[in-house]
Structures are given as C-alpha cells and as structure tokens.
Amino acid sequence: MIRADRNGGILTLTIDRPDKANSLTAEMLSDLAKQAESAGDARVMVLTGAGKVFSAGADLDAARAGLATSLDWERLSTAIAGFPGLAIAALNGTVAGGAMGMVLACDLRIAVPAARFFYPVMKLGFLPQPSDPARLAALVGPARAKLILMAGQKIDAATALDWGLVDRVSEAGALMSDAHALAADTLAASPDHAAAIKALVP
C-alpha cells in the first residue's frame, strides 16, 4: 500500500509493503502517481519506504503481467519532476529497477549507508523509462550512467554520494529528520517564491 501523510506543508508518501521489499503492484503504482499528481498544495514532498528497502521496483508477478512497461512509471516521474515545491527522496534502503525513476525525478536524494542502487534493464531485456537515462546522466555523467544501465553495476551509498547520485548519506535513525531539515527554507518561503527558484534550475 501507499501511505500519504500531510503535516505542516510536507506530504510524505511511503511505500509500505516491506514483506515484499516494497515492490509495487499495478494498483500501488497508480495510487503513487495519483498522490504525486495531487501534491501541488504541499510545499515539500518526501518519498520513502517502510522497512529496510526503499523499493525493489515492480512486483515480479505484476512485471510479468505487463507492469514493467506500464506508462504509469513515466506518469509518476513526470508528476514528481513537475511538483512546484521541493521533492526529496529519503531512501531508507536499496533502490532497484523501476523505482529508480521516481528517485531520479526528485530534487534531492538522501540515503542510509546500507542503500544500494541498481537498474538491471539490460539483463532483464527492458528499456528504461524514457526520462531516466537523461536524468541519470545529468547526475553522474554519461559513462557512469552506462555503467548502471548497460553494465548492470550495483552502486553502494558511498559511491552514489561520490558520483552525485545522492546528495547526502544519513544514518537510518536520522533520515527523516535530515529530510525535514533540508525542507526548512522551502517551507518558510511562499509557494510562488519556491516555485520560481526551482524553475530557474534546469
């Protein structure tokens, strides 16, 4: 399930299926996209997961039934990228497969030390979501993007920080408080001011 909590201008969207590594069913993916699309009245949007994995991407049974190529992945990424406030991925653990798209679409990414990042589209025979390669290359550079997408490399949190894939590594107990600290200036500004500054940054 997807938990949506609003508190003081912050919308927190939590992927809550820890017994299945927070893998997404078609219904969960659609719900997450709807929540992101309707988040405009929030100042800050935080994406996180329950348990020790952020998300393993598509549920395997759902992927075989067509979820791996669903347009809702790109719909979700577009909604997050278009959010006028600050979008933060608070990565409580590993990010895999299609879940990378929503993470790449966020403005900031913070992760716990145990997090790992991989996107095995080459091995699985799928194309990445349309906007993902450019977003990934903008963060880590073209060659490193190919290491992840074409060479199937699994990146640990320290390497992700060094490459620019994440912006901060936070201890698990401090992850959400660190996300809220990063949100403080945006929360204190007017929504129009925050949106105007965000629009200036490519």
Describe the structure.
- This protein is an alpha/beta fold and 202 residues long.
- It has a single domain (2-200), classed as 2-enoyl-CoA Hydratase, Chain A, domain 1 (Alpha-Beta Complex), CATH 3.90.226.
- The chain contains ten helices and ten strands.
- It has a six-stranded mixed sheet, sandwiched between helices.
- Strand 2, helix 1 (26-37) and strand 3 form a beta-alpha-beta unit.
- The protein is globular, with a radius of gyration of 16 Å.
Outline the secondary-structure elements.
Elements: E1 2-7, E2 10-15, H1 26-37, E3 44-49, E4 53-55, H2 60-64, H3 72-82, E5 86-91, E6 94-96, H4 99-105, E7 108-111, E8 116-118, H5 121-124, H6 132-140, H7 142-149, E9 155-156, H8 157-163, E10 168-169, H9 175-188, H10 191-200
Parallel strand pairs: 2-3, 3-5, 4-6, 5-7, 6-8, 7-10
Antiparallel strand pairs: 1-2, 8-9
Q: What is the fourth-level CATH superfamily?
A: 2-enoyl-CoA Hydratase, Chain A, domain 1
The count of DSSP E runs of length 2 or more, i.e. the number of strands, is 10
Largest sheet: 6 strands, mixed
Amount of helix: 40-55%
Short account of what is shown:
The protein is built from ten helices and ten strands. By secondary structure, it is α/β, with parallel strands linked by helices. The protein has a single domain, classed as 2-enoyl-CoA Hydratase, Chain A, domain 1 (Alpha-Beta Complex).
